[in-house]
Amino acid sequence: MDFSIDFLKQLATKVYDVVKPLLGTKEAAQKSKRGAGGDISMHIDLVAEDAIVKFLEKENMNLLLISEELGEKYIGDPEKAKINQNVLIVDPLDGSNNAARGVPYYSVSIAYAVGNRVSDIKKAVVLNLITKDIYCAEKGGGAYYNDTPIYVSDLDLSQKCFFELNLPMKNLMKNLQKLTPLIKRFHRIRILGSCALTLCQIASGNMEAFINLRESNRLVDVAAGMLILKEAGGEIFSLNGGNIDIELSIDAKFPFIACNAVLVSLLKEELKLKKC
After folding, report:
1. How far is CA 185 from CA 161, 182, 214, 267, 268, in A?
2. CATH architecture for residues 5-149
3. DSSP strand pairing (63-67 vs 86-94)
4. Which fold, 162-274?
5. pLDDT digit string (tens) for 22-63?
6. What's the distance, Cα to Cα, between the start and end of the chain in Å?
7. What proportion of the chain, given as a percentage, has pLDDT over 70?
């Protein structure tokens, strides 16, 4: 079996099947060891990741798996995986705290790359683990919500823009003061708890921007959403306005700005001047 969009959807559905009975339960929230991504793993995280590993092994895939809890692990034959450069970047449960507490906003995020950089990501799937709706994209082939093409909105700051804001606790008030003039120009602020799903909301035109200043933000959280957003006509960039084309690694962490095409120039200028 190859790494088709359908294959990635099957993989995401396996996660849905195993986590659904655990959602909102005490068992789901049981703490385990610290995962490779840096957070303390919960039982529900480990169950989701285990479903992915078992499915890949059953299908005899040869690849490098980069995943939230286990870090980096070769599935199948490591030499074949190195030769074919197949890489899966996965967050088995993006929004674990929401899932454990029963807040209905979390997802499984899967990106497929041939190579070792963000620009090598070819396909992506994000599955909403509440509704079972699927966002997907193939590089150069557009982005889709289930089977319907999606596009970013064309709203600017003169209209009712929605955005998400995610700030580190360090220098929180200082950053808020710097961003206040910009924040006042947006219609509504949301803090939802699943980076992957929020990028898909922007891709669908339901939101306009996501300002994430947390340096601890992980590649596994956003790898799939980045491609989906770009294929829907949006952009994602670093705080200095540059392209994000870093090496694929469990250690990759970075702040970012994501938005529709209309807001790109304004946000780049605002955030450079603020030096957040």
Report:
1. 8, 5, 22, 12, 15
2. 2-Layer Sandwich (3.30)
3. parallel
4. D-Maltodextrin-Binding Protein; domain 2 (3.40.190)
5. 877 778 777 765 555 556 578 888 899 999 999 999 999 999
6. 45
7. 94
Tens of pLDDT, residue by residue over 25-36, are 778 777 765 555
Where helices occur in the chain by DSSP H, the ranges are 5-19, 43-58, 78-84, 96-101, 172-183, 195-203, 219-231, 264-274
DSSP 20: G
Residue 125's identity, in one-letter code, is: V
> What's the pLDDT at 182?
79
What's the pTM? Answer: 0.92
Place of tokens 């454990």: 100
Q: Which residues pair with 121 in a beta bridge?
A: 113
Measured on CA atoms in the order 203, 207, 211, 212, is the torsion positive or negative?
Answer: negative
**What length does the chain have?**
276
**Can you give the residue ranges of every domain in the chain?**
5-149, 162-274
Residue type present at position 189:
I
Closest by Cα among 46, 41, 54 to 14: 54
CA distance 33 to 246: 28
